[in-house]
Amino acid sequence: MKKLLAYTSVFLWMALIFYFSNQPANESNELSTGITEVIVTAVEKVAPHSNFIVGNLNHFVRKNAHFLIYLVLGVLLIHSLRLSGVDGYKGIGLALSICVLYAISDEVHQLFVPGRGAQVRDVFIDSAGAFVGIGIYVVILFRTHVDG
């Protein structure tokens, strides 16, 4: 049951990534601009004299979203593979490979979405997020086995 739940979470997360990538450029930009405005509002409450330009910050938010969404995918994948008995370097390599291939396919998919395009830079950002997520998982797993 644990494996089923783990793999279901991987596929649901991939579906969420597909959903976000399938949004036309204007819808995607509206969503990220809305999130950016919430962040700016929150920061201005803490630091009222900060002068953020939403457009500049929006780019930063969008790229960090790439990183974070693939960080989570990396964690979900490495965990699922570990539950299936694929661990160690083989599990790390397979999880990272799946994430990189999914990032590439995601960018290719965006070529067919109105106003969107493929960005090699986004594949690198996605891959870095997956790498960090997998690394965090491995470090936590190692620490819990060493300490406990």
UniProtKB/TrEMBL annotation:
Give a yes or no for keyword GTP-binding in this entry: no
Q: Which domain of life is it from?
A: Bacteria
Q: Which UniProt keywords apply?
A: Membrane, Transmembrane, Transmembrane helix
Q: Which residues form the VanZ-like domain?
A: 10-140
UniProt keyword annotation of Membrane present? yes
What InterPro entries does the record tag this protein with? Phosphotransbutyrylase, VanZ-like
Task: Name the residues that span the membrane.
Answer: 5-21, 65-81, 88-104, 124-142
Can you name this protein? VanZ family protein
**Organism listed in the record:** Psychrobacillus soli
